[in-house]
Write a structure and sequence with these properties.
It is elongated and about 85 Å long. It has two domains: 7-181, 3-Layer(aba) Sandwich (Rossmann fold), CATH 3.40.50.1950; 191-405, CoaB-like (Rossmann fold). The two termini are 36 Å apart. It has 406 residues and is an alpha/beta fold. It has an eight-stranded mixed β-sheet, with helices on both faces. Strands 2-1-3-4-5 form a five-stranded parallel β-sheet, with helices on both faces. It contains 13 helices and 19 strands. The protein binds cytidine-5'-monophosphate (C5P).
Length: 406
């Protein structure tokens, strides 16, 4: 589990988004974290300590004068063995207190007394005007300068009925952000373009040809790259997957659309990772109208033409311009070692990732082989996110050596 062994101090301040903190707490414990909840008095107006205690499995602290703490120094003891403090929801008033070093209740005193290396992660939740108010923005800027990390806020409809920035991120997004906070930032400052999923080649307006790619591996690579600190653009064929938090997703259907979207975005990228299962052919004589079934039993005479090879096209430009660093994927049903090395050469790319067998489509686990100029390395069977993190780490090591980035 992603947070196994992690000790998280979850701070709740006054805001209606406290109702989401219950689910967040549950998500954190399910991900393996041990959660110590600390609430302000204002938070207690929105959710009870009993609920948070039941979900975290630990007594909740809210008072500086809690007789349960032997030395009466809860503000110091609570964080000393923690791996992070997450304030969710964090109100505008609590941002003010943090920015000014206030220490007039347990939570603010605890934040002031925390050791400097302990990450302070903040999920703001407030009305849009409160968030946009220059006073709040001054506090946010100050806190960023002080090393506080912000998760959100998101834009959208608010509990007060107004619309705009200020909503707390959803519990699942906060969980993703917290997990990301613990990942090494090996791609900080890098821009990464990723293709994922199948493509869909139309036969007529309601029919088409596609493949069994679920997009899971590409989405895992996008999430892992974002966790590593990269700015990520994900160009995706049709999938049912949720966009990893913080990733910019561009939806396409056909291989030609994927090609065009990649070409429009590729110039600014340090790395291009082609995970998509792109259709090799499209229907050359696709119909604008829905084809009718014929009474005489005759069937459509479909003609095919070849789609552009997106990866090979980008790789060919790479050799001229020096970037992006290109990574391809290959699924071969047999003799992967020989085919993998040959495919890397044929595509003209520095790194190729081989999937062992076609049965990887739709699965959560995989075994992959990395082919580069020095030979091959096997990454043993693991879930796709674990493999994606290993791949991103391997890419970052190779990037360091890549001429343009020296
Ligand atoms: O040639 P093959 O389809 O086996 O190569 C697979 C790799 O090439 C994958 O990285 C895939 O995303 C990429 N590819 C592409 N455009 C195509 C076909 C494959 O980018 N038209």
């Amino acid at each position: 589990m992603d947070l196994t062994g992690k000790k998280i101090v979850l701070g709740l301040t006054g805001g209606v988004a406290c109702y989401k903190a219950a689910e967040l707490c549950r998500a954190l414990t399910k991900a393996g974290a041990s959660v110590q909840v600390v609430m302000t008095d204002a938070a207690g107006h929105f959710i009870t300590a009993v609920t948070m205690q039941a979900l975290s499995g630990q007594p909740v602290f809210s008072s500086q004068w809690d007789p349960r703490v032997d030395n009466n120094m809860a503000h110091i003891d609570i964080t000393r063995h923690a791996d992070a403090i997450l304030l969710a929801p964090c109100s505008a008033d609590f941002l003010r207190k943090l920015a000014h070093g206030a220490c007039d209740d347990l939570l603010s005193t605890m934040c002031l007394a925390k050791q400097r290396q302990l990450p302070l992660l903040v999920a703001p939740a407030m009305n849009v005007e409160m968030w946009q108010n220059p006073a709040t923005q001054r506090n946010v800027a100050q806190l960023r300068e002080d090393g506080v990390v912000f998760f959100g806020p998101a834009a959208g409809e608010q509990a007060c009925g107004e619309v705009g920035l200020g909503r707390m991120l959803e519990p699942q997004q906060l969980l993703e952000e917290l997990i990301a906070a613990f990942q090494p930032k090996v791609l900080a400052g890098k821009r990464i373009l990723i293709t994922a999923g199948p493509t869909f080649e139309a036969i007529d307006p309601v029919r088409g040809i596609t493949n069994l790619s679920s997009g899971k591996m590409g989405y895992a690579v996008a999430r892992a790259a974002r966790e590593a600190g990269a700015e990520v653009v994900l160009i995706s064929g049709p999938t049912a997957l949720a966009t990893p938090h913080g990733v910019q997703r561009i939806n396409v259907q056909s291989a030609q659309q994927m090609h065009d979207a990649v070409m429009a975005a590729v110039d600014a990228q340090h790395v291009f990772i082609a995970v998509a299962a792109v259709a090799d052919w499209r229907v050359a004589n696709a119909s604008d109208q829905k084809m009718k079934k014929k009474d005489d039993g005759s069937v459509p005479d479909l003609k095919f033409e070849q789609n552009p090879d997106i990866l090979a096209t980008v790789a060919a430009r790479t050799s001229l311009a020096g970037y992006p660093y290109c990574v391809g994927f290959a699924a071969e049903s047999e003799n992967l070692l020989a085919f993998g090395a040959a495919k890397r050469e044929k595509k003209g790319i520095p790194l190729l990732v081989g999937n062992i067998g076609h049965h990887t489509f739709g699965q959560d686990d995989n075994t992959i082989i990395l082919f580069d100029e020095n030979g091959h390395t096997i990454l043993p069977r693991a879930d796709k996110l674990t493999l994606a993190r290993q791949l991103i780490s391997e890419v970052s090591k190779r990037l360091d050596k890549y001429s343009l980035f020296q």
